[in-house]
Design brief:
The protein is of the alpha/beta class and 254 residues long. Helix content is 24%, strand content 25%. The chain is globular, with a radius of gyration of 18 Å. The structure holds zinc ion (ZN) (2 copies). The site of one zinc ion has 4 residues, from loops.
């Protein structure tokens, strides 16, 4: 499977964009920067999977739908656990802060529809199997286990300790790659805990729970204002962890 990094960061600053990954050209994993791609790339999107309803993961949906609305007849399918769908419906596509594109051009064939998915229930999207997993964030959230052609990939979304997710992942025969978050440097450990995010020391605690040894581990959601401190904390000289930072516009082959 192919994953394009469109937005890799946990804050929006010049040169740093909000979380969005594109799987095999047509499936978006989170959508903070979905409108940032070339128009042609946006027109390829058929499915959007959202981990949680925080604005940095959904704001691009609003402008993406507006961009493509008159250029295609298809319906884009947005998938998330029920409380996430409810939050997006109530607070974004509510006809107050943005147009309700689930009713346009008409309710029968809207430009976007919302479909609930449940933890541990696998959905097949054209041969890509996507399974939402329970995570632990300050709002209802899920990660995603994604399987295609025998490759296993995990995208955690925003999280702090997530024992149920690790239980599931450790039952897999292997895990080829994962994208996991780090938001704050270690000196802001308390803020990380209160906001239910990871800092490098908390990440190391979480990775001790992963039984698989050969997994490629990619880091996303760094707050760019702390990037120098976070990189120093992530790569101390005395700890040998094979972590990789994600760079925007890079493509990962799994
Ligand atoms: Zn976030
Ligand atoms: Zn969040």
């Amino acid at each position: 499977m192919k994953i394009k990094v469109v937005g890799a960061y946990g804050a929006a600053l010049s040169g740093y964009h909000l979380t969005t990954f594109i799987l095999n050209d047509n499936i978006a994993l989170d959508a903070g920067s979905l409108n940032r791609m070339d128009l042609e790339e946006q027109l390829n999107i058929d499915h959007i999977f959202i981990t949680h309803a925080h604005l940095d993961h959904i704001t691009g949906i609003a402008f993406f739908i507006d961009n493509i609305f008159s250029l295609t007849d298809k319906t884009i399918h947005l998938h998330a656990i029920p409380p996430v769908i409810k939050a997006i419906r109530d607070h974004l596509f509510n006809s107050d802060v943005w147009v309700d594109f689930t009713k346009l051009p008409d309710s029968g064939t809207p430009r976007i529809d919302f479909a609930t998915i449940e933890y541990y229930e696998t959905m097949d999207v054209g041969g890509v199997e996507i399974t939402p997993l329970p995570t632990n964030h300050i709002v209802p959230s899920s990660g995603f286990h994604i399987k295609q052609d025998g490759k296993n990939f995990l995208y955690t979304g925003d999280m702090i300790e997530a024992p149920e997710m690790w239980d599931y992942v450790n039952k897999l025969d292997y895990l080829d790659a994962m994208i996991i978050e780090v938001s704050f440097p270690d000196r802001l450990l308390n803020i990380a805990k209160v906001s239910k995010h990871l800092c490098p020391s908390l990440l190391r605690e979480e990775l001790k729970k992963l039984k698989h040894q050969e997994t490629d581990i990619y880091i996303y959601h760094i707050k760019p204002m702390f990037i120098d401190d976070i990189v120093q904390d992530l790569f101390p000289k005395d700890v040998d962890l094979a972590l990789q930072l994600l760079y925007e516009d890079e493509i990962i082959e799994i």
